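Quick one: structure tokens for this chain, please?
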Amino acid sequence: DGMRGRSSLWYRVRVNLTHVPEADRPTLAREVREWEPESALFAGEDGLAIYPPLIADAARVLAPGGLLAFEFGFGQAAAIRARIASARWRNSSEVGVVTGTGRQSS
């Protein structure tokens, strides 16, 4: 929602989104389940509820050649790639990190 209503263009958007599927709730460490607010963890059934509006809004507010960077959870790479492709982004790449999980940069 932070990008809605913006008229100026940005060169970089980096976000740390909620990306835990609701089904993973019981598998989270007790400390995480009890400490973190639900809104900071869970993003719908597949954990991807926030990504379509993010991708659409970022396409609108990024300057040509701008960068959108975000992380996603285990097993979500294919779904993220599909959402980016359907939004017709160019020059999308996935960057791995030490833990072996992907990070998306578009």
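The longest strand covers residues 62-71.
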